């Protein structure tokens, strides 16, 4: 495992870790709202590292990256776009496959809008969100998220803890092992409530960006997801008709945690195919 500090948008320092085979094709993991790189443990400690260079970042405001409390650091899409571009540039990631969970769908679309898809081999959207507005609440974004937002963005610590515990329970259909669940609570609580709130102070419509995608796209979605509803996955497929879908039965918001063996096998095949297509182009 190798640790990097990357200078992201507006000079903010980003914490990035990598594993696996140096010089190999890259899979770049981007986590969701209030999470960090630790959520990808079942991927970076798997056989994926035998064939790929695996890179995972802590988003601005999360984990071990800089976390200024001013909301302006989180409401400008160009900053998010430049963070992803900075990791690709400063770590010399050649045609990476991006894997984005949940809120990372927004961030990947921010990157695509600002920088295009020319440097990417493919994208895997995992329970990912690409639309955030009032109309999406309850139709694309579900109660597994909405029911806990008030507490999770509150400065009242007991309310905050209760909301995060309930949010993490809502993230999976099956119960996580106790050690993993406890660790997930810890990495969520590392994110200040003000930053969680700032991430939601945006209005996002990425339909036009998705419609222009010509690189391989895989939409991975749990059928029992109550955080980002399956309707969001279907929306991505409608906007991006060349995308392929992988639906997980009896699975919630985190297929990579609930069914890591299947997830890793599918990601391995998708990344191989995407990189091969990119090399032939």
Automatic annotation (TrEMBL):
InterPro entries: AB_hydrolase_1, AB_hydrolase_fold, AB_hydrolase_sf, Epox_hydrolase-like. One of its GO terms (molecular function) is hydrolase activity. Keywords: Hydrolase. Residues 27-265 form the AB hydrolase-1 domain. This is Alpha/beta hydrolase.
